[in-house]
């Protein structure tokens, strides 16, 4: 990056743009986003399809701003929620200036990667193929070649990077620099200090959902949504947050609450701990489980829960 302002005396030109992070579920997209920003704006969990909304994370330097659009993992949809998630990916790709395609170097490409590659091959936008989980991959170079081959014939700018989003802050910072370098000349889209466009309530609800998804078994993790309805701050700094875990059937309610309320308590404790770390404040977290029948197939309920 060259800053001409010191030699010309002109106001420094700003560069900014939207960059989508795409890839199949569970490859580490949200982990990479959080690493780019050195903070937690997106939920991560060992379960695929944790991310449901195109969360935006924002990184700003003096002259450059990247607005990251973290997308849900592209997959074959099974229900209206799944369709919503895939649409989020399509619209993210149409609106961005560059794309980061994250792949898991532990495995060769599968059907879902081919699905992603098909969407990316003819897209006339700069692309970074990011081979992630380098720390735990046995044959990273071989895997990377196979992923690269899926893009054969692509004419737009394509760069390849292998790294570990979880453990390699230097490589992540270098990739961020490469992305900054290709941003078009634009005014900043967000204030310099902003890290995300989510409200604090949406952010907290996603942390609660992350903890719920980690604890729940079988299909249940995908049948829960979360929201935060009240957030008040006491004079001594205590944050009082009241949230709901939404399930789609009465029968699921007890499964989330667990015997004697044990499981709900554990979800609440884990979420509260995370919230306290990130807010650096004491948190009281009240959690309730409510039923909205068949919410995953109900457009109105999906809207109400913020999936629109
Ligand atoms: N060993 C290792 N694990 C990683 C790395 N990056 C991510 N993970 C783990 O991979 C899992 C999935 O990470 P996420 O960031 O939630 O993946 P995602 O692609 O956003 O997943 P979806 O929300 O399903 O689309 C988590 O358990 C992460 O801790 C890495 O570089 N190395």
From TrEMBL:
Residues 163-165 are annotated as: G5. It comes from Deinococcus aerophilus. It is a peripheral membrane protein. GTP binds at residues 23-30, 70-74, 132-135. Residues 216-293 form the KH type-2 domain. Residues 49-53 are annotated as: G2. Residues 23-30 are annotated as: G1. Residues 132-135 are annotated as: G4. The keyword Secreted does not apply. An essential GTPase that binds both GDP and GTP, with rapid nucleotide exchange. Plays a role in 16S rRNA processing and 30S ribosomal subunit biogenesis and possibly also in cell cycle regulation and energy metabolism. CDD domains: Era, KH-II_Era. It holds the Pfam family KH_2. This is GTPase Era.
């Amino acid at each position: 990056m060259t800053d001409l302002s010191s030699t010309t005396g002109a106001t420094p030109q700003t560069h900014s743009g939207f960059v989508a992070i795409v890839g199949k579920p569970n490859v580490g997209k949200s982990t990479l986003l959080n690493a780019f920003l050195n903070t937690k704006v997106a939920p991560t969990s060992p379960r695929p399809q944790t991310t449901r909304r195109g969360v935006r994370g924002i990184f700003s330097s003096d002259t450059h701003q990247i607005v990251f659009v973290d997308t849900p993992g592209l997959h074959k949809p099974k229900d209206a929620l799944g369709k919503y998630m895939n649409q989020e990916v399509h619209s993210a790709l149409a609106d961005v200036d560059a794309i980061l395609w994250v792949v898991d170097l532990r495995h060769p490409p599968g059907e879902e990667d081919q699905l992603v590659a098909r969407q990316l091959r003819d897209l006339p936008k700069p692309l970074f193929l990011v081979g992630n989980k380098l720390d735990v991959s046995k044959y990273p170079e071989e895997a990377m070649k196979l992923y690269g081959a899926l893009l054969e014939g692509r004419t737009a700018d394509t760069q390849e990077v292998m790294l570990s989003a979880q453990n390699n802050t230097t490589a992540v910072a270098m990739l961020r620099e490469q992305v900054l370098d290709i941003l078009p000349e634009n005014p900043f889209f967000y204030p310099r200090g902003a890290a995300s466009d989510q409200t604090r309530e949406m952010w907290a609800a996603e942390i609660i959902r992350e903890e719920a998804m980690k604890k729940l078994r079988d299909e249940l993790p995908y049948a829960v949504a979360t929201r935060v309805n009240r957030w008040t701050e006491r004079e001594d700094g205590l944050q009082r947050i009241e949230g709901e875990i939404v399930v789609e059937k009465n029968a699921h309610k007890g499964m989330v609450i667990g015997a004697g309320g044990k499981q709900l308590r554990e979800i609440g404790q884990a979420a509260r701990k995370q919230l306290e770390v990130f807010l650096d404040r004491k948190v009281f977290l009240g959690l309730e489980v409510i039923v909205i029948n068949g919410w995953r197939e109900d457009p109105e309920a999906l809207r109400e829960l913020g999936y629109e």
